[in-house]
Amino acid sequence: MKGDFDRRNFLKVAGMSGAIALGSQISSRAHAKKPAPAYPIPDGPVTKEDYQALKSEAEKTFAGNRTELQGYYFHMPALGTYPSLFAWDSGWHTIGMNRIDPKMAASEVEFLMLQQRPDGRVPHEVQFKEIKQNQDLRHKLGNQLSQSQFQDGVSVQVDPPSFIISAEKIYQNTKDRAWLTRLLPRFERAIQYLTVTRDLFQTGLPSIIHPWESGTDSSPAYDQILDLDYRTPLGGPYRMFLYPKMFDRQKELGYDLKKIAADNWFIVEDMNVIAITIRAVTAVSRMFEQAGDKAKAEQYRNQAKQMTEAIRKIHWDDQAGLFWSRYDLKDPKFAKRTTCASLLPLMSEHLPQDQAERLVKEHFHNPAEFWLPYLVSFNAKDELDREKIYFEDLLLWRGYCIWTNMNWMICEGLLTHGYTDLAKELTRRTAKMIRNQGFWEYYDCRSGQGKNAHPFNWPAVVLDMIHLTWPEAVV
Predict the structure, then answer these.
(1) Using an 8 Å Cβ cutoff, are 341 and 348 in contact?
(2) Are strands 316-317 and 322-323 parallel, antiparallel or unpaired?
């Protein structure tokens, strides 16, 4: 029913989807606009001048995207494009803000956790009437089409728990025991929701029920799951229609997880979500350790270990040397597309060194896939080069894109497993790229050109990367 229903109705809304594409003012050629001429990544280390320039740009960007509500500060990813509170975005914001103003970072995480639902879910997005929705045509229409995901301005969707990872780093700076005491029970409920309520495959791992819950909206890994084909001009507009229709279907089912699971439209153990959740469980363990609760610390340490063992058993492809996302409750299958998500289990301290080595040497440090002059392409270059798609500039997480949060996570994974020199070089190229281009939503891995929303907060994570890998550059 699901696929047939959507395709029968596609033509009825194709005009609106087409308007979204038109509103974006993108090229209609198969592989979108030509990239800007590449600029050289300067030789030499990350310098104090680099760090100060990046910090100043981060401060200016955060100030432009900041709002204060109910006595708390938080940051919208980009005011004119994404004027809401987004959960995983707040994780990336506060990882950067923690290196500028840890108390402000703590305020954002606490305000986010105050939006937590009674079942433990931290919403993907919360819209506030106090914030003027000053969006461009494409995002405004997309928001209107997707209203079925909201109940009183709060999304029924969930997000990867990057904010829990950030919380550990914030506490390391502030040592604010009262803040930690207030938030630890909320972090526990968030983990409980993801690893129990959302354990739809009964593996101890979280599942997602919509691509937006992964954060990686139009990842190629979802093409085979949703029968999407971007090699035709209708592929992009159909996806723009399909994602809102998935929300409509969930609303028809009363947002009931059991009914949604039985419907089995998009039930996915997504590697991006799983890897971030494992790292968040480890963060909770460490925060309990710092709070003096040894039993809770051991409980969550064991959970992170068990989750890592689960992905090694279920999701590891020994022939490919990669972890794949898995979908379909009734007949489980793997989505075999090579993206950064397949590398993110590197963040787990429980991943054996032999598997970490394969991820790093066979894939991350492979110039045919990810090790390019500009780092790190979300999608493996060899697969990109075989697939020319329409509306590439419109579809987030498609094409030759670099996302700085992925760079931060890979840096974290490299350091976890002892690849210090690679982490330093990843940081160096990331810092030089951002300094040249400014704070953009993502960058083109062929040229380093910044693209889409600007100014965008996520690139501030590079400040944390510099602290960890080039401490001599920190002013």
Answers:
(1) no
(2) antiparallel
Asked whether the whole model's pTM tops 0.85, one would answer yes
Tokens of 378: 């979300």
- With the CA atoms of 331, 332, 338 and 340 taken in that order, what torsion angle do they form, in degrees rounded to the nearest 10? 140
Confirm if 21 and 430 have CB atoms less than 8 A apart. no
CA–CA gap between residue 400 and residue 397 (Å, rounded)? 8
Q: Which of 338, 319, 342, 204 is nearest to 270 (CA)?
A: 342
Residue type, 454: H
Q: Which residues contact 43 (CB under 8 A, 6 or more apart)?
A: none
Query: How far apart are the C-alpha atoms of 401 and 390, rounded to whole Å?
Result: 15
The total domain count for the chain is 1
Cα–Cα distance between 351 and 276 in angstroms, integer? 14
What are the phi and psi torsion angles at 67 (to 5°)? -140, 160
Crossing angle (nearest 10°) for helices 404-416 and 461-469: 20
pLDDT digits (tens, 9 = 90+) for 353-371: 999 999 999 999 999 999 9
Q: Is 469 helix (H, G, I), strand (E, B) or coil?
A: helix
First-to-last CA distance in the chain?
59
- Boundaries of domain holding 137: 2-473
Contact 352, 371 (CB under 8 A): no
> Residue 448 and residue 38: Cα distance in Å, rounded?
7
Nearest to 167 by CA among 66, 53, 90: 90
SS3 74: strand
Tell me the two tokens of residue 272: 């991006």
The tens digit of pLDDT for each residue in 388-443 reads 888 877 789 999 999 999 999 999 999 999 999 999 999 999 999 999 999 999 99
Q: Which of these ranges, 72-86, 268-282, 296-310, 329-343, has the smallest mean pLDDT?
A: 72-86
The candidate with the shortest Cα–Cα distance to 281, out of 167, 182, 176, 179, is 167
* Structure token digits, residue 195: 């690893």
From the list 55, 276, 61, the residue with the least C-alpha distance to 163 is 276
Whole-angstrom distance, CA of residue 323 vs CA of residue 305:
16
Q: Are 407 and 426 in contact (CB under 8 A)?
A: yes
Query: Which amino acid is present at 435?
Result: R
CB atoms within 10 A of CB 437: 19
CATH of the domain at 363: 1.50.10.10
What DSSP designation does 199 have?
-
Q: Quick one: tokens of 419? A: 């690849």
